[in-house]
Design brief:
two-stranded antiparallel sheet, 9-stranded mixed sheet, Rossmann fold, alpha/beta
C-alpha cells in the first residue's frame, strides 16, 4: 500500500473511531460529554457567558517572555480507547504570547504527545495546527470542550465544534507531536482577534516555543482562518523566532487579502464572521469601532452584539446569507465602507499576507472556485511567495462550483477533507528531509 493510501486509510479509521470509540476510565462517556456540554449552564454567578474555568481564567502573576509555558492540565479525549496514552496523551496548555501591540497575554491550546514512535528521520517532529474558524466566544475554543470535541454554552446559545479533530489524531498516530492553538482571546479572558494575522501568527509561533524541545523539527499547518494564521507565522518566524527549526508550512485556503475575503463571506452561510472580525479588531484599534459605528443601523448593532460571543454553528443559523448592506445606514456593504475609510483601509492593508518572505518551504492550497475565501487571492499569495524566491508551491484542486447562486460554503468546506491526506504527506516529506518541489511559474 502506498504512503498516500496508508494516510487515507488512517484518516478514515480516525473519523470512524470518533463515532464508535467505547468509553474507558480515561475516555469521555456520552453522559460525561453531555455533562460537559452543559457546563456553562451551571457555572458560578458572574460568569454566565464564558463558563468560569480556573485553568483559563485564574490570573497569572508573571507571564514571562513569549513562549513561556504557564501551566498544563490533563485532557482526556475520545480516542483514548486503549488507555490514557493511545493514540497519545493530551494536555491543555496555557502559555505566553503577544498582541499586535507587543503586550504579553496568556494564550491556550492543547498538546497530544504521540503514543506511536516517529519512524521517520530525526527526532519526533511537531505540527502546530492553527484551527479554522470556530467563532469568537470562549465556548468555541478547541481546548475547552470535553473530550476536546465540542462545548455547548446555553447562554446565547453558542456551540463550539472541534471539526478538525480527526486530522490531529491522524498526525499523532503517525508519531508526530500535535499542538493545537486556541488563538489569543479564544479560551482565556479577552476578545478574540479574528483574522488579525500578526496576532494569530504570534500565537502559533509561541505555542511552538512553549512545547517543542530546542532544535527539534516543527511545521505549521492550518486551513481557512488557520491557513492565514499558519502563513502569518511562517512570514514572522525568521524575525520573531529565528531559533525554531521550521521545516515547512501548509497554508490551506488562507484569507490573505482581507478585502477580498470580506466580499467573499458577505451574503454567505458564514456572514457572522464579519462580526467576529469587527468585534476583535475594535478592541485593538478603537478607531475602527468609532468609524464603523457611525455607519451601523439598529440591525447592524444587533449583529455585532450577537456575534461577540457566538460560535460558527449558531452564528450561521442566525445570520446565514446576511447581506451586510442591510446592516448599514447608508446601504453600503462593510467591505465598501472599509475600502473607502482611510484608517480602516490602512489597518487591513497592513495585515495583507505575502509582503514578508518565509524562510522555509510553504504550500498554499485552494479547492478552486472557493465560495468564501476567494481562490484568486490564494493563488496570488502563492505567486507573491514565488516572486520573493520562497520555496513555494500551490495545490489548486480546481473543483467546480457546487451551487453558484448561493455562497453556502460547500467549495470551501470540502477542502478540509479532500486536502487532509496530501497535506499530511507533504508535512511527512518535510520532516524526512525530502526537498520541497515548487511549481512556481505554472499557475
Amino acid at each position: 500500500m502506498s504512503t498516500r493510501n496508508r494516510l487515507a486509510s488512517l484518516l478514515a479509521t480516525v473519523v470512524l473511531g470518533l463515532s464508535t470509540a467505547p468509553a474507558t476510565a480515561q475516555s469521555s462517556s456520552p453522559q460525561q460529554l453531555l455533562d460537559g456540554l452543559r457546563h456553562a449552564a451551571t457555572t458560578p454567578a458572574g460568569n454566565p457567558v464564558a463558563g468560569y474555568d480556573p485553568f483559563y481564567d485564574d490570573p497569572v502573576a508573571d507571564l514571562g517572555a513569549p513562549g513561556t509555558l504557564l501551566r498544563t492540565q490533563p485532557a482526556p479525549h475520545l480516542l483514548n480507547v486503549l488507555g490514557p496514552d493511545f493514540p497519545g496523551y493530551a494536555k491543555k496548555i496555557l502559555y505566553t504570547s503577544t498582541t499586535v501591540h507587543g503586550d504579553a497575554v496568556a494564550t491556550s491550546g492543547f498538546v497530544i504527545e504521540p503514543a506511536n514512535p516517529w519512524r521517520g528521520a530525526g527526532p519526533t517532529p511537531t505540527v502546530i495546527f492553527a484551527p479554522g474558524t470556530r467563532g469568537s466566544g470562549d465556548a468555541c475554543a478547541p481546548s475547552r470542550g470535553p473530550g476536546l470535541t465540542a462545548q455547548l454554552q446555553l447562554a446565547g446559545p453558542a456551540l463550539g465544534i472541534n471539526y478538525e479533530l480527526a486530522s490531529y489524531h491522524a498526525a499523532a498516530l503517525l508519531g508526530m507531536r500535535v499542538v493545537v492553538v486556541d488563538y489569543i482571546g479564544l479560551g482565556p479572558p479577552g476578545p478574540h482577534t479574528y483574522v488579525l494575522h500578526d496576532e494569530e501568527g504570534h500565537a502559533v509561533i509561541d505555542a511552538a516555543r512553549a512545547v517543542v524541545p530546542a532544535g527539534d523539527p516543527v511545521a505549521f499547518s492550518g486551513y481557512s482562518q488557520g491557513g492565514g494564521a499558519a502563513a502569518a507565522a511562517a512570514e514572522l518566524q525568521p524575525t520573531y523566532a529565528p531559533e525554531l527549526n521550521l521545516r515547512g508550512t501548509i497554508a490551506g485556503a488562507p484569507p490573505a487579502d482581507l478585502f477580498a475575503t470580506m466580499q467573499g463571506v458577505d451574503h454567505s452561510a458564514i456572514a457572522a464572521v464579519l462580526g467576529y472580525a469587527l468585534n476583535g479588531w475594535a478592541d485593538r484599534y478603537p478607531q475602527l469601532s468609532t468609524v464603523v459605528g457611525e455607519y451601523l443601523n439598529d440591525r447592524g448593532r444587533n449583529f455585532l452584539d450577537s456575534t461577540a460571543s457566538s460560535c460558527i454553528p449558531d452564528g450561521a443559523l442566525r445570520w446565514a446569507l446576511t447581506d451586510s448592506r442591510t446592516l448599514t445606514s447608508t446601504g453600503e456593504s462593510l467591505a465598501e465602507i472599509a475600502a473607502r475609510e482611510p484608517e480602516i483601509k490602512a489597518l487591513f492593508d497592513a495585515q495583507k499576507l505575502g509582503r514578508r518572505s518565509p524562510a522555509s518551504p510553504i504550500m498554499v492550497t485552494t479547492g478552486g472556485n472557493d465560495d468564501l475565501v476567494p481562490t484568486p487571492q490564494a493563488i496570488q499569495l502563492a505567486r507573491d511567495y514565488c516572486t520573493a524566491g520562497v520555496p513555494a508551491s500551490l495545490m489548486n484542486e480546481n473543483v467546480p462550483a457546487f451551487y453558484p447562486p448561493l455562497k453556502i460554503g460547500a467549495n470551501h468546506a470540502a477542502g478540509i477533507f479532500t486536502q487532509a491526506v496530501p497535506s499530511m504527506q507533504w508535512l511527512t516529506d518535510r520532516f524526512n528531509g525530502v526537498p520541497a518541489a515548487s511549481n512556481c511559474g505554472q499557475f
